[in-house]
């Protein structure tokens, strides 16, 4: 079973220079591949694949343009993988699975340096450090998080909000199959409570806590400062490429706050999933939500975005696969909220403001989310995600 471990690293000054140089070259090559194919299309020429572009870049382009020799100063593995990533983006576009590939900007910080394992000594892991190709041994911040002497297939190095991370793909044992399993569980996710389970477990909305609200208030204040600084910079005739040190420092503050909020929310998702899996259910049923359609509501879009419903489903899917639990996904229009969990009657008109479900046939009164979770646990029409 392949498993990914991502942890923060503490490189020295020379390793930081190499990381930033590699990331910059990977971003340039990715954008160059897109722009080169756009030019070929406008000239009526055929599409150049990633392998052909790599050969042309090394044999023709750099040889005829010595000013671009700095492309070869970094790892050739990382550069080639960046080209193949751009080629895969075009393939998805041709298959109509995604939009046209976009150029990567420096401020987006979404470019990663990929290092495959070609030799046995390329990737090695010890308790307090990890060996990365072209970088050497780098100290990790969390000792023992990556299993020592793990069989690493490949890895990436990334930089985000002033921190450096390494992500390794490890070949581990087979999934854990639980033998003693209890009854199935239905999970209803929402905004008032993040998740309500049919067995009575209720997980509150972390975005309503004082800690998150304090950080969001601080983020709003720092974003306002950044907006003022950039506005004054533009009034003086400056461009984004000529940002001063104070503006870059303010950008770093905003990035760190965004990253901290993201880490807190993801940590809460992991804790919720662990609590659900600890009950050892035979199956877990959740609803197939139309998050894209829900985001069109301008009054609730921001609150829905903070809940990360899609990420919760992906993490739950992986955890169920690891523990041998069947994950069921009820149809999108399954009436889990409008159906009575006792008599099975359906309530046609149910407003979003009605937090207590009152059955018109049997007179049952139950919490709206709890009623939906019980109906999801009893659902007979579903798709098996894993």
Automatic annotation (TrEMBL):
GO terms for molecular function: DNA binding; metal ion binding. Residues 309-376 form the Cas12f1-like TNB domain. This is Putative transposase. GO terms for biological process: DNA recombination; transposition. The keyword Lipid biosynthesis does not apply. It comes from Anoxybacteroides tepidamans. It comes from the Bacteria. The keyword Coiled coil applies. Keywords: Coiled coil, DNA recombination, DNA-binding, Metal-binding, Transposition, Zinc. Residues 205-236 form a coiled coil.
């Amino acid at each position: 079973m392949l498993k990914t471990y991502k942890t923060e690293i503490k490189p020295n000054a020379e390793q930081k220079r190499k990381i930033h140089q590699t990331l910059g070259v990977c971003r340039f090559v990715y954008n160059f591949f897109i722009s080169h194919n756009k030019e070929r299309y406008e000239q009526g020429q055929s599409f150049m694949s990633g392998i052909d572009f790599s050969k042309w870049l090394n044999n023709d382009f750099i040889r005829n343009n010595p000013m671009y020799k700095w492309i070869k100063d970094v790892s050739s593995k990382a550069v080639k993988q960046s080209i193949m990533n751009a080629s895969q983006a075009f393939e998805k576009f041709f298959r109509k699975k995604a939009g046209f590939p976009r150029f990567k900007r420096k401020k987006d910080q979404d470019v990663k340096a990929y290092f495959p394992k070609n030799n046995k000594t390329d990737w090695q892991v010890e308790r307090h450090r990890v060996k990365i190709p072209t970088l050497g041994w780098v100290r990790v911040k969390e000792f023992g998080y990556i299993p020592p002497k793990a069989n690493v297939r490949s890895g990436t190095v990334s930089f985000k909000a002033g921190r450096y991370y390494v992500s390794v793909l490890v070949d581990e044992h087979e999934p854990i199959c639980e033998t003693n399993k209890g009854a199935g569980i239905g999970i209803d996710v929402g905004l008032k409570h993040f998740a309500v389970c049919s067995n009575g477990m209720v997980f509150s909305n972390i975005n309503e806590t004082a800690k998150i609200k304090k950080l969001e208030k601080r983020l709003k204040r720092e974003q306002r400062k950044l907006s003022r600084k950039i506005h004054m910079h533009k009034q003086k005739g400056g461009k984004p490429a000529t940002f001063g040190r104070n503006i870059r420092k303010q950008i770093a503050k905003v990035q760190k706050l965004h990253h901290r909020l993201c880490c807190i929310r993801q940590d809460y998702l992991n804790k919720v999933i662990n609590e659900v899996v600890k009950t050892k259910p035979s199956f877990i049923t959740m609803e197939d939500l139309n998050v894209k359609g829900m985001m069109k509501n301008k009054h609730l879009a921001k609150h829905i975005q903070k809940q990360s419903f899609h990420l919760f489903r992906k993490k739950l899917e992986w955890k169920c696969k690891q523990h041998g639990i069947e994950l069921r996904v009820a149809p999108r229009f399954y009436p889990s909220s409008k159906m009575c969990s006792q008599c099975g009657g359906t309530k046609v008109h149910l407003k979003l403001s009605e937090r207590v479900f009152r059955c018109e046939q049997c007179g049952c009164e139950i919490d709206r989310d709890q009623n939906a979770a019980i109906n999801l646990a009893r659902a007979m029409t579903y798709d098996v995600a894993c």
